[in-house]
Amino acid sequence: MAKSARPAPSLIPAVLALIVLIVLGYVLFADLQPSRTEHTVSPPIEIEEPDFEIETVEPVEPAEDRQAVIEQEADEFVNTLAPESNTNSITLSGEQGEFVRHDGTIIIPKTETRQTSIDELKADKTLKADTHIDLSYTETNRQESSLAKLNDEIDDKNQLITIENADGTERKAPLIEFLNDENVDAEKAITLIERKDIILSTTIGELDTLKLSPEQSLTAVIDKGSIELSVKDITQADDFADNALFYMHKVTERDTQGLWGIIQTGLIKRFRQGLQLEGIGINKNMVQVTIPADADEPLPTGLSSFLGKILNNKVKSSYVYNYTTSTMGHDPNLIHPGQQVILIHFTAEELKRIYQFFADQRSEQAQSFSIN
Questions:
Q1: Distances (CA, A) of 133 to 89, 116, 127, 212, 214
Q2: What was the pLDDT predicted at 30?
Q3: Does Coiled coil appear among the keywords (predicted)?
Q4: What are the CA-CA distances from residue 275 to residues 11, 84, 272 (Å)?
Q5: CB neighbours (10 Å) of residue 361?
């Protein structure tokens, strides 16, 4: 019996497998290629690099070094607070008090204040031609305008303006109030009144050159010379060293808060003003501290603050000297502008403690800021 021949293997499955591999390889290769779509932008966009502000951070001193610097600052500040006795005398102008040594001298300008006029000043034969005077008065200007014009010229409609009425009386109100008046005629002519305070320095001999009405009402502060006084002559005390420090202030009409306010304001201004002392601290040549305006207020617990205790003691031990009568008083509630100077004795240690106390607060605030 004859054997049947075995069929030859088919190539179709192999071909199909090869096709599948080729397709799969193409798909994988295509996925690996980056897909990018280019767009042409017109005009081109310029990418600017941001400007970063360079902030210089001062190095933080170690606590021990910082405290040593503060102590050195306090020493230098107090030691140079008042000039040596062999320097020029200190003038008390009334604008700001000064620290003076016990062996120092002060000059107090003498002035007289009058409500007067140019004619009255010229008629006073006691005033010489070179007598210096400070004049202050109010200058009044009237000009024709209209509410419509003012509305165009003034941006802030709440600005106060003064208008003269037909009967000569004046009305002062915000511009918007005039514009909102019932039946207002914005184009109607009005008389606008403007007042400006003027202060000028001159002499009696120059009064004729001023473009002022002879009857112009004004305030004149007349220079009456000056008084030179020794601090020792004022205190009449031998128990103070020559370098003992006194804060001295000429009483003026602005001293409405009495001795407490005089001392507080004087310390705040003097310590904030500072002194130029090079070579102390890091990146620093001004030795100064800021005393907060409310530093004398009681603490939340009701107890007196550090500065409040000092002010209370100084008010009780202050000198009130009347330089017009050469008499001394100690009543803190009885002060007279234009007649008295206030003397408050501070020891060097007291002033150093004040400086260090508020300098420490400054350092603590700066340190907490840098940590946060």
A1: 23, 12, 10, 15, 16
A2: 58
A3: yes
A4: 105, 16, 9
A5: 16
pLDDT of residue 56: 45
Quickly list DSSP for 183-233.
T--TTSEEEEEEEEEEEEEEEGGGGGGS---TT--EEEEEEEEEEEEEHHH
Which is it for strands 170-174 and 160-164: parallel, antiparallel or unpaired? Answer: antiparallel
d(CA 41, CA 56) in angstroms, rounded, equals 41
* Residue 332 pLDDT: 65
Residue 245 to residue 239: CA distance in whole angstroms: 13
Strand partners, 114: 220
Place of tokens 């008390």: 92
Strands 319-322 and 189-203: unpaired
Average pLDDT over residues 304-329: 82
Instruction: Report how far residue 210's alpha carbon sits from residue 136's, in angstroms, rounded to the nearest whole number.
Output: 13
User: Can you tell me the mean pLDDT for 149-158?
Assistant: 92
Q: What angle do CA 281, 282, 287 make, to 5 degrees?
A: 40
Q: Is 329 a residue whose pLDDT tops 70?
A: yes
Q: Is the pLDDT of residue 146 over 90?
A: yes
Cα–Cα distance for residue pair 114/218, rounded to 1 Å = 8
Q: Which is higher by pLDDT, 142 or 28?
A: 142
> What is the domain partition of the chain in residue ranges?
64-111+225-371, 118-216
- The angle formed by the CA atoms of residues 333, 302 and 312, to the nearest 5 degrees, is 30
Q: Are 354 and 271 in contact (CB under 8 A)?
A: yes
Q: In what order do the strands lie in the sheet with 340-346?
A: 98-101, 245-250, 340-346, 319-322, 327-329
Mean local confidence (pLDDT), 79-108: 78
What is the predicted pLDDT for the residue at 236?
Answer: 83
Q: Which two tokens stand for residue 189?
A: 């002519």
Question: In this structure, what token pair is assigned to residue 176?
Answer: 């918007």
Beta-bridge partners for 193? 142, 162
For residues 237 and 194, give the distance between their C-alpha atoms in angstroms, rounded to a whole number: 56
